[in-house]
Amino acid sequence: MATLHDYRMDITPNWCPGCGDFSVLAAIQKAAVNLNIEPENFVLQSGIGCSGRISGYLNVYGMHTMHGRSLAVAQGVKLANRDLTVVCAGGDGDGFGIGGNHFVHAARRNIDITYIVMDNQIYGLTKGQMSPTSPKGFLTKSSPEGNPESPISPLQLALSANASFIAQGFSGDIKHITSLIEQGIRHKGFAFINIFSPCVTFNKVFTYDFFKQNIVNLDDDPQYDSTDRTMAFDKVEQTDGFVKGLIYRKERMDFVDALPGRSGKENLSNQDLQLSADQVQNLLQRYM
Amino acid sequence: MNIKSEVSCLVGGMQGEGIESVGEILAKALGRNGYYLFGYRNFSSRIKGGHSDFHLRIGKDPVYNASERFELILAFDHESIELHQRSLIDGGVILFDPKTVKIDQITIRGGIQSIAFPFSDMAAELGSKQMKNMVAVGAACALFDQPIGVFGDAVREQFAKKGEAIVEKNMAAVKKGHEFLQELMDTRFPLEKQPQSGQRLFLSGNDAISIGAVLGGCRFMAGYPITPASDILENLVQMLPNYGGVAVQTEDELAAIAMVIGAGYAGTRAMTATAGPGISLMQEAIGLAGATETPIVIVDTQRGGPSSGMATKIEQSDLHAMITGTHGEAPRIVLAPSTVEEAMLDMPKAFNLAEKYQCPVFVASDLVLSTSKQTCEMANLQLEDIQIDRGKRVAETELAMSGDRVYKRFAITDDGITARSIPGQKKGMHHVTGIEHGPTGHPSENPANRVAQMSKRARKLQCVPMNDAIKYEGIPQAEVLLIGFGSTYGAIREARLWMQKEGAAVGHVHVRMLHPLPAAEISQYTEKAKTIIVVEQNSTGQLANLLKQHISIHAKLHPCLKFDGVPISPSEITSFCRELI
């Protein structure tokens, strides 16, 4: 039985004191233990940026990949071995800027991985430039006159891309995000969890206090139906995206099951690669 | 009548008219009659319309390239005649369809016969104009003095799925073309009879690469459609599920290679196939695979560049991208097949090398090799000898006994290769990253560690075996040495044979592994040669420059370059040589 100790890595993260990413790291470790996943069956891909360093801070099979491409790498791992728990994590620039294309396609493909975005609305590691989730008019080093662009809405983007599990949390509530991550991992299909993870150094607007005061908790709304896509879209619209909880969930066939001839088969990574004489003959038949 | 040891024909018409099916059926039938074939398709980046042609060379002995001269042109459009009549032999024949070719608008050169052959009308009489291609098959069959029987089987196989009625109609069309030609003219280009041979395949380089991948244990392929690599994705989407694998079409080439890295890391033999712009997009990931020591295979079906370049035309200009591409310095191996047989066998080899040396392995194909079809002798393949070598993997027992919490995946070793642990292996957990890292894979900027890890990765390539890294043909002590790689093999070979016939002491080194370069093996021949001619289809002489980087042959090296999108011909090589010697 895996314990928190098993998941711990004796390396001090290079994050600033107070960074929201510490909570996300702790929540992932806690969720894995709660779900009783052995660390050797847990693969965590991460992208590039402050949050991308997360893969090195827990003792699993960790892959720190390329800026924006962690989701694609994660899908390759899952396709090779569906018995592994595959979690992918990164920042808002990584996931919605340079990696935006993979986000949309992983969602519609509905591959069974959990994607956690630590959204701080800024580029932290490069020391404070605007990101795809920075609001219009936002002052940063690369937008000294205010961000001229409108931000994307990650939740609505995921909804329109047909993601089958969409949730949002806030680093200031570690218990809540742990629960969301557990639900995301258990969900068979693509699970997207956006977590507001404040950058205490470069973002003086979207602070812990800001979220504590402004975020709407879906649990407080008994009328909310997370299976209703239209309602989900509207809720995000009404709250300007500052909402936490399970936004949307729908069971839909996962990608591996949808692939012809793949459902119920042995993992790709676990096969005898040497072909028999008959198999060779069949392979060549149409060229004879 | 003059019996020939080989003949060639060209079928040309509007793209999308089924020009290639004429070649397919001729090839299938003639292959069964024991002949060797080479089929080259000249096409454009469009679906329908525009001229397209198919060159078929039929020989008693193996043929490795398209012929420069044809005996027969089957013309469904003006371009087939205007572009190619100069390539007809004296006494050659043009059979044109009067429905689509207004012959009085074309000046036909002397010494050849152009004859109206109502392909379309005859087909229409039989029920469908589409069958004009089958009428053409019949005509070619008669002109080459071939028995019609074996064509029946080929037609049957081609149309079996469409039902017996369609098969019958198409066979009738072949027969009608055959009979009509016999009534029409006496000219024949009879082929020397060929005894029935051992089992053979007729397939393109892309087909061979796909088969080779499956034989080599590939169980995951991710790709993005691109000319001329798409066939490989399409083939593997069909083939892999039969062998427990899967091929997926991704949103772009960035995702394709990233998925391949993920699958490779997770212990599956994984590959992608692309060309030009795709290779450019994959550059960053090549560095990641190199830095994380992840085995992956990348097929590059080179085409005209830069940028979109010439998507449907041959070029061999991605050498630099394959050998040095990506920022920084990352290890990789580059194989270069030159025939369909090699294309098939290089795939298992590529997967073995990738897992053994834990690095990206490129298979450098090119448009002509990938899309041309060649006869392939089963006996030469010796598929039963293919071995799967998964490289160094750490054993469960070793991990169980280890006191380490984190597996030292990147521990420094003598040969630079560290045993891999695969996700799922207990106590095999570790970190991989494109950031410089220490033995457990965690980031490190320590100068000594940096040097140790860079050297470790570089050291791996020093052990790559050099057997079969070149092939040599021709006179042992050649004064004139031709050097090439990839699909130019056939043209260089033919040029060498012609020059040898004239008494020249010519040899031919074909480089089969471009990186690490087998410099010592090549030097054996360059030392003795007085003149070295490097034949390649690019404008800067990438192979020539690579050779100069490793071997001191500057004064006697002459690059013979072609970058107009047309495959280099033997006579272009011989004229280049004659001017030099």
UniProtKB/TrEMBL annotation, chain A:
Protein name in the entry: 2-oxoglutarate ferredoxin oxidoreductase subunit beta
Taxonomy of the source species: Bacteria, Bacillati, Bacillota, Bacilli, Bacillales
Protein's UniProt keywords contain Manganese: no
PANTHER family found in the cross-reference section: 2-OXOGLUTARATE OXIDOREDUCTASE SUBUNIT KORB (PTHR48084:SF4), 2-OXOGLUTARATE OXIDOREDUCTASE SUBUNIT KORB-RELATED (PTHR48084)
Keywords assigned by UniProt, alphabetized: Iron, Iron-sulfur, Magnesium, Metal-binding, Oxidoreductase, Thiamine pyrophosphate
Species annotation: Ammoniphilus resinae
Enzyme Commission code(s) on record: 1.2.7.11, 1.2.7.3
InterPro entries: 2-oxoacid:Fd_oxidoreductase, OFOB, PFO_beta_C, THDP-binding, TPP_enzyme_TPP-bd
Pfam families tied to this protein: PFO_beta_C, TPP_enzyme_C
Domain Thiamine pyrophosphate enzyme TPP-binding: residue ranges: 48-195
Automatic annotation (TrEMBL), chain B:
Keyword presence, Oxidoreductase: yes
Keyword Oxidoreductase: yes
Pfam families reported for this sequence: PFOR_II (PF17147), POR (PF01558), POR_N (PF01855)
Known EC number: 1.2.7.11, 1.2.7.3
Location of the Pyruvate flavodoxin/ferredoxin oxidoreductase pyrimidine binding domain: 212-454
Domain Pyruvate/ketoisovalerate oxidoreductase catalytic: residue ranges: 16-179
GO MF term (any one): 2-oxoglutarate synthase activity
Domain Pyruvate:ferredoxin oxidoreductase core: 478-573
Classification via InterPro entries: 2-oxoacid/accept_OxRdtase_asu (IPR022367), PFOR_II (IPR033412), Pyruvate:ferred/Flavod_OxRd (IPR050722), Pyrv/ketoisovalerate_OxRed_cat (IPR019752), Pyrv_Fd/Flavodoxin_OxRdtase_N (IPR002880), Pyrv_flavodox_OxRed_cen (IPR002869), THDP-binding (IPR029061), Transketo_C/PFOR_II (IPR009014)
UniProt-listed Gene3D superfamilies: 3.40.50.920, 3.40.50.970, Pyruvate-ferredoxin oxidoreductase, PFOR, domain III (3.40.920.10)
Keywords, in A-Z order: Oxidoreductase
Stored NCBIfam families: OAFO_sf
Name of the protein in its database record: 2-oxoglutarate ferredoxin oxidoreductase subunit alpha
Organism: Ammoniphilus resinae
